[in-house]
Design brief:
This protein is α/β, with parallel strands linked by helices and about 400 residues long. It folds into 2 domains: about 210 residues, 3-Layer(aba) Sandwich (Rossmann fold); about 150 residues, P-loop containing nucleotide triphosphate hydrolases (Rossmann fold), CATH 3.40.50. It contains 17 helices and 14 strands. The strands form 2 sheets. The protein has a 7-stranded parallel beta sheet with strand order 3-4-2-5-6-1-7, with helices on both faces. Strands 10-11-9-12-13-8-14 form a 7-stranded parallel beta sheet, with helices on both faces. Helix 3 packs across helix 5 and helix 7 packs across helix 9. The longest helix is centred in the N-terminal third of the chain and has 15 residues. It is globular, with a radius of gyration of 22 Å. It binds adenosine monophosphate (AMP). The site of adenosine monophosphate has 12 residues, from helix 3.
């Protein structure tokens, strides 16, 4: 299938050709016609599948086709809600580049940075607004944004949005838009709460499912290293010296862990940057830009800070800590090996992470190959150091109520 078969108009197709897009991706093939028809859509697709263009292109075409109303002044007609600032910025960059051939104006608003310039942007008039939930509601409260003219509402990374506790904000935002509108919901995974949200706010949605979570990993070569927890830093340095080359993201579970590893790598002469939820927005953005420009080739990140980021030319992903949620492993390693290229993931597993490893291998239905030739092996008799509370059962991949409450603090 080609883009012109999807009934996209010529200027849009020309822009895509200039960008080197030869044909639509699977999610684009399925989602674009539905959005053009004005249908509500619930799509299970993750970053790397081309999902942003899957909604951005038909939205632009719809706006283009209905230009009459925009002549009456710029009003927010498309609202994209995204859970993280980085992702919001990225979505806007995508919209901007696809909208080159149009006069449509886009803007992005997010928290953690001064609200005044964002007010000015909105004041000047915007057709397509990309926003994180908190800042959007703030701006609405201050009467700086009018959502009465929204024709299409996109909820991107809905599972993450709900994980981050934005459910009430999302429902509120939906109610602030007119009841007659198109809603497009994208989610990497489809847990019950996402389905429930969709049932509440979407109208007869068309369902699209692309690449179930576990299949993405086929384009990634995966290697596992067993090592004692205290020696992970040594092993990581050893791998950086001898094995891992190119542009790398190293994932850690906690902000504290990210900072600690960053210090160690800097001390050892590596050019490193890091992103996590405690860093001011400007620092996170600078770090991303340096990494994208290739000024820095190692980025250390927590999952939430990094999720959804479209980072090109990634050669490797390092799981310094194994994630306790198996789907997170798939999200992490899915950032390498994009667009048909083969990438590599290196996972460091200590004795107490073996239960997490078991859950991951079950999800991906693959035994990750183990590399034993390294100087910091784990004693095969080492027992998992699982910290059990009296009466509590350790269940890898499941979060206790207490850990859910703590969530806001550790990423
Ligand atoms: P996304 O899943 O939206 O984060 O997109 C992942 C990457 O794929 C982005 O760098 C897009 O620019 C790129 N992309 C999207 N659609 C296509 C396409 N049809 N052909 C080639 N690259 C694409």
């Amino acid at each position: 299938m080609e883009f012109k078969d999807l009934k996209l108009n010529k200027p849009l197709v020309r822009t895509l050709v200039q960008k080197g897009y030869e044909q639509p991706t699977l999610v684009q093939e399925q989602v674009i016609p539905l959005v053009l028809e004005g249908k509500d859509v619930i799509a299970s697709a993750q970053t790397g599948t081309g999902k942003t263009a899957a909604f951005a292109l038909p939205i632009l075409q719809n706006l283009y086709d209905r230009q009459d109303s925009s002549k009456r002044g710029r009003k927010v007609r498309v609202l994209v809600v995204s859970p993280t600032r980085e992702l919001a910025i990225q979505i806007e960059e995508n919209f901007k580049s696809y909208a080159e051939s149009t006069v449509l104006r886009t803007a992005v608003v997010f928290g953690g940075t001064s609200i005044e310039p964002q007010k000015k942007l909105l004041d000047a008039g915007v057709d397509i607004l990309i926003a994180t939930p908190g800042r959007l509601l703030d701006l609405h409260k201050q009467e700086m944004v009018n959502l009465n003219f929204v024709e299409t509402l996109v909820l991107d990374e809905a599972d993450l949005m709900l994980d981050m506790g934005f459910i009430d904000d999302v429902k509120k935002i939906e109610r602030l838009c007119p009841s007659e509108k198109q809603i497009l919901l994208f989610s990497a995974t489809m847990p019950h709460k996402v389905v429930q949200l969709a049932e509440t706010i979407l109208k007869n949605p068309e369902k699209v499912e692309v690449a179930p979570t576990s299949s993405v990993v086929k384009t990634v070569s995966q290697v596992l290293y067993y090592t004692p927890k205290p020696q992970k830093i040594e092993l990581c340095l050893y791998l950086l010296r001898n094995t891992i080359k190119g542009n790398i993201i190293i994932f850690r579970r906690t902000k504290f862990g990210v900072d600690k590893l960053e210090k160690s790598l800097l001390k050892n002469g590596y050019k490193v940057d890091s992103i996590h939820g405690d860093k001011p927005q400007s620092e996170r953005q600078d770090a991303m830009n340096r990494f994208k420009k290739g000024e820095v080739n190692i980025l250390i990140a927590t999952d939430v800070a990094a999720r959804g980021l479209d980072i090109k030319d990634l050669d490797a992903v390092v799981n310094f800590d194994l994630p306790n949620i198996p789907e997170t492993y798939v999200h992490r390693i899915g950032r390498t090996g994009r667009a048909g290229e083969i990438g590599t993931s290196y996972s460091l597993c200590s004795a107490d992470e073996k239960p997490y490893l078991a859950s991951i291998q079950k999800l991906i239905n693959t035994h990750i190959s183990v590399e034993t030739e390294h100087p910091y092996p784990l004693d095969p008799k080492a027992k998992p150091e699982v910290h059990k509370k009296k009466g509590s059962k350790h269940r890898p991949g499941r979060k206790s109520e207490a850990s859910k409450k703590k969530k806001k603090r550790w990423y």
